[in-house]
User: Fold this.
Amino acid sequence: MKYVAAFGRFWWDFIVGDDWRVAVGLAVSLALVWFLAHEGVNAWWLLPVAVALLLVESVRREARSSGG
Amino acid sequence: MTHDVLLFLTTFFASAVEAVEALTIVLAVGVVRGWRSTMIGVGAATAVLAVIVAALGPALQGAAFARERRAAEGAGVEERAGIDWYSFTVAFKGVLLEGLEVVFIVVTFGSTQGNLGLAAAAAAAALVLVVVVGAVVRGPLERVPENTLKYAVGLLLTSFGVFWGGEGAGVDWPGSDLAIFGIVAFMALVSFALTRSLSRRRTALKPAESRA
Assistant:
């Protein structure tokens, strides 16, 4: 049971990491890109922009909360 | 003869691009987090790749496989003995994924031109060259300051992640694999601007802190 929990924790850390909002934002962005691609829209620019915005927001939030 | 030269060069360069992608990931993870688990990941991916090629090799010579390659990414198997699973998984995925792409390149180009042996030789030559280059640059890389290296590793992993994520979601990148350079440049610009803004913020806060 201990190993199952450790295995689960590893994947949580590996996929979600220390900011779950970034993981959710990325999942939503990927789903949107997939949906658009299947509707015939090649939204290649969407993912880099989404990642950049999520990164900036995550770092700003962390900077505010640590007072830095 | 011209066909053979073209087949060799096309397969060589296409395979070299994939090998460089895998090498970048392995070097990045190995230098930052240590080599043992990283190389175990490389070894495991190579073994899985060999099994996949041996088991499915003949079946791969169909026409509609290009979009199916991601499905072959093997799932991790839990073990206990002191392994850094982050290094293992990143190295494993990188080598397996890029290795599979090389297999598809060889099979596609080789069977189209009716010379699978030459295509395989070109891929092997590209692989040897890239591994030699990797062994040469490993030393100098280990002397780069840790924070700079972590920044570069984060930049590369994020950029590769964006590229692969987009490809997996059905995006057709402008310039194909060359789009990676554009993504790296964009991410570098964003992270550089972010770092500058944080350091300005810290400088602005310092006088206020010292007055308090």
About this structure: DSSP finds six helices and no strands in chain B.
